[in-house]
Specification:
It is a single chain. By secondary structure, this protein is mainly α. The protein has one domain (2-51). The chain is built from two helices and no strands. Helix 1 (2-13) packs antiparallel against helix 2. The radius of gyration is 16 Å and the shape is rod-shaped.
Length: 52
């Protein structure tokens, strides 16, 4: 979440258009969701290895 705010602030500082901000927000949301899904996979693998 802080990453999204950070990039939005940077975009505002260089006076980007609202459309660009919307695209940037969506890209960051997709990146966050992908990272979260990978983290869940790694946690599951770690749990399975501990059981063995």
């Amino acid at each position: 979440m802080s990453m999204i705010v950070y990039y939005m602030i940077l975009a505002l500082e260089i006076m980007q258009s609202p459309q660009y901000l919307s695209i940037l927000t969506k890209q960051n949301a997709v990146c966050f969701k992908t990272s979260f899904e990978c983290l869940k996979i790694f946690k599951n693998i770690f749990k399975q290895n501990r059981k063995l």
